[in-house]
């Protein structure tokens, strides 16, 4: 049986002693090969959680194990097998698309890097602007480059923070189809933070609902919709955000 993709035990982040925790004692185990979603309003702790899973933030308390590697002791072994994408993290604007992807291929020690870049460029429709500086790309093009960067090392765990934010519906649907295909062919696990409820309903097997840095409910999208007596996940999200609780 494969090891879980992520094990979080009492995961906590407090920035100042006088402040409430940004993340307060999260406990969850995400199985390998699944797509899970983190949902919650602004300040719920989604991005902080992802940063701790990546090892970018040191937890104030608790433990993170990624693909069998304890992030406190064996972070670099885990990082080689995972990757991350967010439209809010810009690639160096003066480097071309090919140069940016080449840098990350080098960092991940990707074998036959030029072949891998060419493969991703064809799959993500980047071939026509590989030689264009990243700063001259449209929002949709930048998103495709960010996804290519996140797939460069064929990750077994892919962390995504609002992967389709600011994209038009057609490009957003294209990105979601690509992510579904990658998971199906690779068996990778995906952890997704998103405010797009239709996206989560389509992609996620399981949802962690966060509020105030805590998990306040969880389940499959259909289970949550049924439990709250709602028509879709957006209505569930609003109930939880407004403290209205489950349907009787």
Explain what this protein looks like in three dimensions:
The chain is α/β, with parallel strands linked by helices. The model has no long low-confidence stretch (mean pLDDT 92). The chain is 36% helix and 22% strand.
Highlighted features:
single chain; 248 residues; alpha/beta; 4-stranded antiparallel β-sheet; 10 strands
Q: What about the largest sheet? A: 6 strands, mixed
Count of runs of 4 or more consecutive helical residues: 9
Lateral arrangement of strands in the main beta sheet: 6-7-8-3-9-10
The structure class reads alpha/beta
Radius of gyration: 18 Å
Q: How much β-strand is present in the residues?
A: 15-25%
Instruction: Give the overall silhouette.
Output: globular
Detail the poorly predicted runs: none
Element order: H for helix, E for strand: EEEHEEHEHHHEHEHEEHH
Distance between the termini: 39 Å
Instruction: Please count the beta strands (DSSP E, at least 2 residues each).
Output: 10
Briefly characterize the structure:
This protein is α/β, with parallel strands linked by helices.
Fold topology:
Elements: E1 6-13, E2 23-30, E3 35-39, H1 46-54, E4 61-66, E5 69-70, H2 75-79, E6 82-85, H3 97-107, H4 113-123, H5 139-151, E7 157-161, H6 169-186, E8 189-193, H7 197-203, E9 206-211, E10 214-219, H8 221-227, H9 233-241
Parallel strand pairs: 3-8, 3-9, 6-7, 7-8
Antiparallel strand pairs: 1-2, 1-4, 4-5, 9-10
